[in-house]
Amino acid sequence: MNQTLINVHSYLAYVALALLVVAAFNAILGLTSKKFFTDKDLRISLFTMIVCHIQLLVGLIVYFVSEKGFQAFAIEGAMKNSELRLTMLEHPLVNIIALVLITMGWSKHKKEESNNGKFKKIAIFYTLGLVLILSRLPWNSWLN
Ligand code: HEM
Ligand code: HEM
After folding, report:
1. How far, in Å, CA of 57 to CA of 4, rounded?
2. How far is 87 from 70, CA to CA, in rounded Å?
3. CA of 92 to the centre of ligand 2 (A)
4. Which residue has the least CA distance to atom 5 on ligand 2?
5. Which of 30, 59, 61, 133 could cysteine-pair with 119, CB 3.0–4.6 Å?
């Protein structure tokens, strides 16, 4: 069960990251080429938001079932071990911040009236979130 959740978190990461790239790129494109914010743009941003939230929820559970998560604080010298520090502290903390930013982008886009304004909020906040997530991924364990 625990390993299944860790695997789900690992595979859903591909989907979440791919969607974030698509949604951020789509918003930047819409902004720079002054397009109308259509239903398609809404769906791309919303679907990205949903998958990211599911990933957040799974991540939070993984944090308490994985030995590389919260439990790692009990290991002597864990803070000095960069791989453990990443999964027990940096990756969770930074990704929660990233998810707050993405959610803020989604909420703020709803309050904008203009096409430009909507694209701008998604473009800025989703891109920021994506960059933060990419900065703190456990690349070594993920790609091996
Ligand atoms: C730890 C778990 C979660 C937390 C802390 C969380 C938190 C939030 C917050 C703070 C908002 C912003 C509401 C607003 O200001 O408009 C939000 C919106 C949303 N969440 Fe989550 N969420 C979680 C899990 C999920 C899951 C599992 C899903 C989907 C299956 C989901 C789907 C959504 C959607 C679709 C919205 C946008 C609603 C709208 O604006 O129409 N969330 N969430
Ligand atoms: C969109 C946000 C996130 C993405 C894209 C993401 C992605 C990943 C990836 C790719 C891995 C490596 C999996 C592997 O080694 O195969 C991982 C591991 C992990 N993540 Fe996340 N994550 C996100 C959010 C979170 C959050 C919010 C938490 C906790 C609060 C979290 C906790 C963990 C933990 C504890 C591990 C280590 C699991 C283990 O290998 O035992 N993640 N994450």
Report:
1. 14
2. 9
3. 7
4. 13
5. 30
